[in-house]
Design a protein that fits this description.
The structure holds two protein chains of two kinds. Chain A is mostly beta strands. Helix content of chain A is 10%, strand content 40%. The chains are: A mainly beta, B alpha+beta. Chains A and B meet through strand 4, strand 5, strand 7 and helix 2 of A and helix 1, helix 2, strand 9 and strand 10 of B.
Chain lengths: 161, 154
């Protein structure tokens, strides 16, 4: 007989994005890597949250502005930042798995957290749509991001155009 | 993604690479050439050789100011008509083998934009245009007033 128990720790990747003060985190299993994308191809008619297409391991990766999704009132990101660091993730979108990348600041780290963590306040002005939970992890207010909600948010962005 | 090896015209708009199937190309003019190749439109008083005002692709695609009035003129054959467009630079016609063409990623595909796929270009990607959806976009933006010029030839 095997005992199946809840994991004692959950592994997360905690990071921050340019232009946003809050620390963000996603489950580590959604992470594929951190990379510098040399060039982001702009896509005509794309909503502002879609910065364009990058190339990662010779595959196209859709580059998203997480900051703009979390704070729609924010200014559009500059695209010409040389050597910008990106977090590469896999997300489910319309029955397909696809690659997405988001600009991040240096200093992201892998952390462990208990399955239940104390709550924290959601910073003012941020949209809660993409946030699974605002939590206090190791004393740091951290927004746990739910990438599964990204497809519906992108659809909403597109519909608004 | 179409034929095993297909001919495309590669061109640039605002530093980005695009490709158009050669089968949909009705003409190209370099800056400074007289526009003598454009056929007259039905019911129009303009005869061949009259000046036409092309739709600027920089404005259409990226809403960037029309800073390159000397750009190349590309005449595209869409389902209903010919469209006269301006691009910044035109590279030579080229073959893009099927293995160099990729499908659009699902998120980009869902945008229903005027493109069919990708090709590798330098460190990034170029976009392969769909002439009919490009024509729809031009007509829509012209009706909305965000594109100043629409030159539609029957």
């Amino acid at each position: 007989m095997s005992l199946i128990s809840a994991p004692s720790q959950v592994r997360l990747f905690r990071f921050s994005v340019p232009g946003l003060e809050a620390a963000l985190a996603i489950p580590l299993e959604q992470m594929l890597g951190v990379a510098r994308l040399p060039f982001v191809t702009r896509v005509p008619c794309a909503p502002p949250a879609i910065l364009g297409l990058g190339r990662w391991q010779e595959q196209p990766v859709t580059v998203l502005d997480l900051r703009l999704i979390l704070d729609p009132a924010a200014e559009r990101a500059r695209r010409d930042i040389p050597d910008q660091l990106h977090m590469v993730v896999k997300i489910a979108f319309k029955d397909s798995l696809c690659l997405a990348a988001c600009p991040i600041r240096p200093g992201g780290q892998i952390i462990s957290a208990p399955p239940r963590v104390p709550g924290a306040a959601l910073p003012a002005g941020l949209a809660a749509d993409l946030v699974h939970q605002a939590a206090l992890i190791d004393g740091v207010p951290t927004l746990l991001i739910d990438l599964l909600r990204l497809p519906s948010l992108l659809e909403a962005f597109r519909a608004r155009q | 993604m179409g034929e095993p090896t297909a001919g495309f015209l590669r061109f640039e708009v605002c530093g980005q690479a695009f490709a158009l199937p050669m089968a949909r190309l009705a003409g190209i003019q370099q800056p400074g050439e007289p526009q003598t190749d454009a056929p007259p439109s039905r019911g129009s008083a303009q005869a061949a050789g009259a000046h036409v005002a092309p739709t600027d692709l920089g404005k259409l695609f990226f809403d960037e100011p029309d800073e390159n009035p000397a750009g190349f003129i590309v005449v595209v054959r869409a389902e209903r008509a010919l469209y006269v467009l301006r691009a910044d630079r035109v590279r030579a016609g080229t073959h893009l083998p099927a293995e160099e063409r990729l499908n659009l990623p699902p998120i980009i595909d869902a945008l229903d934009g005027p493109f069919d796929g990708l090709f590798k270009d330098a460190d990034g990607w170029g976009l392969i245009l769909n002439a009919d959806r490009l024509a729809e976009l031009i007509r829509r933006r012209y009706t909305a007033g965000t594109v100043e010029h629409l030159y539609e030839l029957d």
